[in-house]
Amino acid sequence: MKSLYIILxxxxxxxLFMCVLAIGRSKNKLAPFLNLPIIxxxxxxxxxxxxxxxxxxxxxxxxxxxxxxSINWVIYNFLMFTSNLTAIRxxxxxxxxxxxxxxxxxxxxxxxxxxxxxAFTVYPKTFGNAQLYYxxxxxxxxxxHLTISYLICLAILVLLLYKMYRTPVIYWWRYLTILISFLVxxxxxxxxxxxxxxxxxxxxxxxxxxIMITVFTLAVKPYVLIDRMLRYVVExxxxxxxxxxxxxxxxxxxxxxxxxxxxxxxxxxxxxYGALKEWLGEENVAKGEFAEREQVIEKxxxxxxxxxxxxxxxxxxxxRLIGAFLQISDQSEYHxxxxxxxxxxxxxxxxxxxxxEYFLEIxxxxxxxxPETEYVIVASDIRDFKLINDVFGREAGDRILIRIAxxxxxxxxxxxxxxxxxxxxxxxxxxxxxxxxxLFIEQPKEVAYVDDHLRYPVICHVGVIDADPSVAAGILIxxxxxxxxxxxxxxERRVVRYDDVMRKQMLWENRVTGELDDAIRRKEFVPYLQPxxxxxxxxxxxxxxxxxQHPTEGLIMPxxxxxxxxxxxxxxxxxxxIWQQACVLLSKWQDTELSELPLSVNISPRxxxxxxxxxxxxxxxxxxxxxxxxxxxxxxETVMMTDVDRRIELLDKLHGAGFLVEMDDFGSGFSSLNLxxxxxxxVLKIDMGFLRESADSERSKQILLFVINLAHQLGLHVICExxxxxxxLELLTEAGCEMFQGYYFSKPVDVEMFVEELVxxxxxx
Length: 765
Ligand code: C2E
Ligand code: CA
Ligand code: CA
Known about the structure:
Blueprint: H1 2-25, H2 31-53, H3 57-86, H4 92-111, H5 113-116, E1 120-126, E2 132-138, H6 140-166, H7 173-194, H8 202-218, H9 223-236, E3 240-244, E4 250-253, H10 255-261, H11 268-280, H12 282-286, E5 295-301, E6 304-317, E7 320-330, H13 332-346, H14 356-369, E8 375-382, H15 385-392, H16 394-410, E9 417-422, E10 425-431, H17 437-441, E11 460-466, H18 473-487, E12 495-497, H19 500-521, E13 525-534, E14 539-550, E15 554-556, H20 562-568, H21 571-589, E16 599-602, H22 607-610, H23 613-624, E17 631-636, H24 644-656, E18 660-666, H25 673-678, E19 683-687, H26 689-693, H27 697-713, E20 717-721, H28 726-734, E21 739-741, E22 749-750, H29 751-762
Parallel strand pairs: 11-12, 14-16, 16-17, 17-18, 18-19, 19-20, 20-21
Antiparallel strand pairs: 1-2, 3-4, 3-7, 5-6, 6-7, 8-10, 8-11, 9-10, 13-14, 13-21, 13-22, 14-15
Helix pairs in contact: 1-2, 1-8, 2-3, 2-8, 3-4, 3-6, 6-7, 7-8, 15-16, 21-23
């Protein structure tokens, strides 16, 4: 029987030894704290073997004392472990010190027991099968010792209970193992102490709990906890999840799936299948198709458009299918954001028409893909839109833009595309067969004014071009705007077609503008002279007319560049140069037979804005020492139509300085007779051109004669230009015209020819 106990104890020690090995290998951070309680638990077991096998009282006494003393250390070491496990470490040093002193003193007293018998005495007793065992007879001190043991146990219990009180139930398993093993242990120990079995095997309890705690601490995985957590994840995932078993019977759905599909618990399988059929189609579900592929379904559900992504996952464990789950994510927001983003990227926010980049892209694409249809591109531009914005405010501007966009949309044809390609610029690509100028000429009344109560006119200019598929949309549109730029200042014309002539004109304009400075520097502009003849046939003056001796283009007439330079204001540069050339000539002629010959120079209306006319001419005559009366200044009627007071003042000043002013092209423009009343000019220059161009020449002739007459009555001299025939000359002479200029006498010629051929011919008469 004794040997049975010995084997039992040895097995225990072996078990504990295995625990020590396991702890050594474990990476668990609690493992090092387990070593002490486990190793110390070997002592009571080892000394239990001594007690069982003792043959003398003294050996048994020593055995019991070491047994009792070591038990307290075992429990204390468990307390330390519990403290680490629960992470409750009250002022550790002090407590540790106190406890060690207390237990140490107790151990000392107990260990001295074989000499003192303070705690117990040992007596032999024979049991049933005649085996002799030594049993303790406890003295008073022993109960003190026992109290210390129970106090340490109590501390363990308090720590565990406190910790459990503070932690969620799902974590209790950690503490319950220790709690239960300790409770059992204490009860077991109590029973064996008080009801004195012949061998105290309660130490086995220590080693069993030590082993259990080791196993729980190091090996056991918290499956319940993991399970709970996984379930939580599934609920919290933000996607809907439905689990299916091997037979595709739904076994679980998370809350998201239950509430979205309104699944019923009582009729779970049917309601899951009902929902799947609704979304994936009856046939697909019947065929098990929902399980085979991943798909995004768009569907109106409870009045909203949903995009649900169905994703089927099969779960395989050790190579065998154990089930599957359907993951359903609601991508509606993503899709609607995507759609919104796409819309914003391709559409103009204000009008909802296509944005410039997108419009260009789809126009190019359309022209490429539909070569059968003939298209035109129509581009529009609002006259002075910046001004409208500035004066009436951005909101008014925006309202106009929206109204125009709406109107453009109303013109919608089957294949038309619309874009807003600039702040006030719209573009339409439409079938040529549907286009007519009329569509765009008559501006609808909705967009004719800024507002109903703001009757400021909104004028839309429109440029049209045939959409040539081989030319990029961007270039075609640019050409529309080139066309529009040609009619920008034209109040009458609203629609203009771009053609090649226009393109060449644009290129030419750019060239003229770009080359002007160099051309002046290289003296490419030369003054030509056209003689002016009096009624006796004698040379009485000459008009200076510019020619451009272009290095590659040859001789260029002023008609090809004056207008361009007038448009951009550069004319002032050229005119100053030409006036100077005229002065150079006059000063050269001063001591020759031509000393009395005056020269007429042209002053463009734009010069009045860009030069100080008075200062310039006074400066020139002084610099070249010229008598101002030899310089005749040709101005046009238009000059006198704006800023009248200042212009009249200027004329007075010029007169005062001795210059002679001629009213050029009288009869070709507005020709207000009223103007003559206020304008103090010296000579009226009448262009015969209108006689040539007029259908009713007899009537025109009468008007001509009348004007000459009127001029004389106002005390003005008259010079007629454009005289081409003898008849004209005779008619004009009869009418009292004093001077003539025209091809009849000579075309404008260069200075050399003028001096060498015309002067001898006309001067000496
Ligand atoms: P303009 O001032 O009316 O000049 C008269 C134009 O009539 C000249 O054309 C002249 O060659 C042309 N002409 C003269 N006699 C006849 C004729 O019998 N029959 C016809 N059909 N035409 C005749 P040009 O030289 O081509 O000049 C055209 C216009 O260019 C001028 O018209 C003038 O407005 C402008 N221009 C010429 N030179 C200058 C200049 O230096 N400065 C400025 N600002 N303008 C100039
Ligand atoms: Ca002239
Ligand atoms: Ca003229």
